Amino acid sequence: MPAKKPLKKAVLPVAGLGTRFLPATKVMAKEMLPVVDKPLIQYAVEEARAAGIEQFCFVTGRGKVMLVDQFDVAVELERTLTERGKQKELDMLHAQALPPGSIITTRQQVPLGLGHAIWCARAFIADDPFAILLPDDLMQCEVSCTRQLADAYNETGGNVVAVEEVPREIVNRYGVIDPGATTGNLVEVKGLVEKPPIEKAPSNLTVIGRYVLMPEVIGHLSKMERGAGNEIQLTDSMAKLIGSQPFHGVLYQGRRFDCGDKAGYLEAQVAFALARPDMAPAMREILKRHA
Ligand code: UTP
């Protein structure tokens, strides 16, 4: 069934503590960590815009003001760049600017879990479908991952999550889908379980940090039920939508780097540098020196 409402909103939960990156995240938000020269949050916003998203809600916490400032006009910086004739840098900043009023923030005072973070954005979501992007999952792909989901939403008119196959022995770290029929890149989702024991996992298809959900998920989240790790899990409320609304996984076409993890973050630096003509020769030299 084709989608009834266009997908224009995205929620970016950025209220996590980022404990795996301490001490870097003692003062600075994890989502400000740069890959090559761009912060994770900016990759996520650019990915969403490439999928037609126009309104953003950052779910923030203590010490996350910088994330919003990243999308503000830096008046003094621009003046200095103008005085110094740095037109290339000015053009880059202008190209990245968002239209006024396109970002709002809401606060998750205590990080009670991803599901709770999404519930904190309920006024922004209202009655509209919305995308979720977890900025610490960094995507490298030809067609933006959010665009891949938006296309699936337009086709099915329901919930869609990006899924990826992982080795069976690590499924217990992720939300896992119980897959039904597969058509092309689209897998029907018959069930969802967060961090299952390996022997009980329904498959090795795991949900990665990109979603398009229907607003009805908020009703389930508002029950505040605790799940795996005693957190209010998004997966548990998504699972309750299955049966009453279409729910599909999109077999994501591209590479994903878990930048919430040190090894994943370092690999992203290498992969993104190698993909850039201005950085690739230097990165190849570095890799040779350390082989
Ligand atoms: P993570 O599981 O990576 O948690 O959250 P974290 O706190 O950011 O990092 P570690 O594990 O302590 O190192 C996944 C995403 O969900 C957001 C995070 O900001 C991140 O984008 N999140 C998580 C919230 O916004 N609120 C929460 O209560 C939990």
UniProtKB/TrEMBL annotation:
- Check the record and name the Pfam families matching this protein: NTP_transferase
An individual GO BP term: UDP-alpha-D-glucose metabolic process
- Every copy of the Nucleotidyl transferase domain together lies at 10-270
A GO term for molecular function: UTP:glucose-1-phosphate uridylyltransferase activity
* Keyword Cell division (UniProt): no
Alphabetical UniProt keywords:
Nucleotidyltransferase, Transferase
What catalytic activity does the UniProt entry give for this protein? alpha-D-glucose 1-phosphate + UTP + H(+) = UDP-alpha-D-glucose + diphosphate
Q: Which CDD domains match?
A: UGPase_prokaryotic
What InterPro entries does the record point to? GalU_uridylyltTrfase_bac/arc, NTP_transferase_dom, Nucleotide-diphossugar_trans
According to its UniProt record, the EC number is: 2.7.7.9
Q: Do you know which PANTHER family this protein is assigned to?
A: UTP--GLUCOSE-1-PHOSPHATE URIDYLYLTRANSFERASE
What does the similarity note say? Belongs to the UDPGP type 2 family.
Query: What protein name applies here?
Result: UTP--glucose-1-phosphate uridylyltransferase
